[in-house]
Design brief:
The chain is built from three helices and five strands. By secondary structure, it is of the alpha+beta class. Strands 2-3-1-4-5 form a five-stranded antiparallel β-sheet, covered by helices on one side. The chain is 33% helix and 34% strand. It has a single domain, classed as Alpha-Beta Plaits. The longest helix is centred in the N-terminal third of the chain and has 13 residues. The model has no long low-confidence stretch (mean pLDDT 89).
């Protein structure tokens, strides 16, 4: 299964995303984003597996927009366009 990281600008925004995705049945985990991925200072990441398009649609419908999106491929994170 594919693993994705959504980068959020703050822990509060990440928590909102986590709640919305959890309500839709998508399992998530929040953690401090690595500095090399965020370039935003104190950003947080929301990790989830499964389809990225349904997850992004759920977030957009809730008025939540990620700062960045990454996919784990062969041990490296590849930035995806939003």
């Amino acid at each position: 299964m594919e693993q994705y990281w959504i980068i959020a600008r703050s822990v509060t925004y990440a928590q909102r995303m986590e709640r919305v995705l959890a309500a839709a049945g998508i399992r998530t985990r929040i953690f401090r984003a690595p500095r090399e991925l965020s370039n935003l200072g104190c950003a947080y990441a929301v990790e989830f597996t499964g389809g990225v398009n349904p997850a992004l649609a759920i977030l957009r419908n809730a008025g939540l927009y990620p700062a960045k999106l990454y996919l784990l491929q062969q041990g490296k994170y590849v930035e995806l366009s939003l």
